[in-house]
Amino acid sequence: MRKLLLLALVGLGAQLVDGSLGMAYGVTSTTLLLAIGTNPAAASATVHLAEIGTTLASGAAHWRFGNVDWKVVAKIGVPGAIGAFAGATFLSSLSTEVAAPVMALLLLALGVYILVRFTAFGIRRDRLGLPLRKRFLAPLGLIAGFVDSTGGGGWGPVGTPAILASGRLAPRKVIGSIDTSEFLVAVAASIGFLVGLGSENVNFAWVAVLLVGGVVAAPIAAWLVRHIPPRILGSAVGGLIIITNARTLLRSDWIDASDGVRYTVYAALYLVWGLALAYSVKQYRAHRDSETTEAVESLAEERPKATVGA
């Protein structure tokens, strides 16, 4: 019962992050399932089955708040579904001994990408309004869908930063469109896992509690996307994913590190994570203060003109 309650809370927390940042539901949930000893393919299958419901609820909530660009959803979602099905069948064919460290390595790489991308660069805003082309979105969807299935998450970590980096779509619409298109990815991945694994290898009680937590959080996250600084949240989530999956890798047969080595690595990672968070907070505040100053100066310049005109 405690495990089910914990999974429900994880589903809720992961969806709050995913819905407000455009990533990390699958990565966060799969990381926890791996940490408690779940078979990698079964863990990814469990998360993707739950995501059918959470992404549907999240997409509906984002649509209600005006956060969805349906052209982007269509151009990236269909190739994403193809890649997700291929990734699911591939992961299902691997043995547990091989799949566990492979998945942890993928998740670790995604965590590093999230941490560096949001800590160092923030979000580009100078190219808003330019069209996103199919020749960019289709390959991106195919790769992101494959990584999502094999890594237990990755649709958001690959898709969201790539579109944000283009600077062509407002952040809230990037997040809403990625979350909505993920429904197609979740359906395709789930079919692939059920074909490759069979339903007997999936714990449907875990699917249900992850789903409940995610559905409760979906509308809250769609509202929060307008209020939480993505730069800070991205740094926080990236660091968490790195530390958790580094633990899995250090304990795996690939490395089998001693206690001294593991604790040294953990200490170094926590230090880097803390510095990254501090830097993100500092940059966010500096950017916010700069925007406030520009707004005040602009208002001050307009007032004399209004007086002269009167």
Automatic annotation (TrEMBL):
<keyword id="KW-1133">Transmembrane helix</keyword>
<dbReference type="Pfam" id="PF01925">
    <property type="entry name" value="TauE"/>
</dbReference>
<comment type="similarity">
    <text>Belongs to the 4-toluene sulfonate uptake permease (TSUP) (TC 2.A.102) family.</text>
</comment>
<keyword id="KW-0812">Transmembrane</keyword>
<keyword id="KW-0472">Membrane</keyword>
<protein>
    <recommendedName>
        <fullName>Probable membrane transporter protein</fullName>
    </recommendedName>
</protein>
<keyword id="KW-1003">Cell membrane</keyword>
<feature type="transmembrane region" description="Helical">
    <location>
        <begin position="232"/>
        <end position="250"/>
    </location>
</feature>
<feature type="transmembrane region" description="Helical">
    <location>
        <begin position="262"/>
        <end position="281"/>
    </location>
</feature>
<feature type="transmembrane region" description="Helical">
    <location>
        <begin position="98"/>
        <end position="116"/>
    </location>
</feature>
<feature type="transmembrane region" description="Helical">
    <location>
        <begin position="204"/>
        <end position="225"/>
    </location>
</feature>
<dbReference type="InterPro" id="IPR002781">
    <property type="entry name" value="TM_pro_TauE-like"/>
</dbReference>
<dbReference type="InterPro" id="IPR051598">
    <property type="entry name" value="TSUP/Inactive_protease-like"/>
</dbReference>
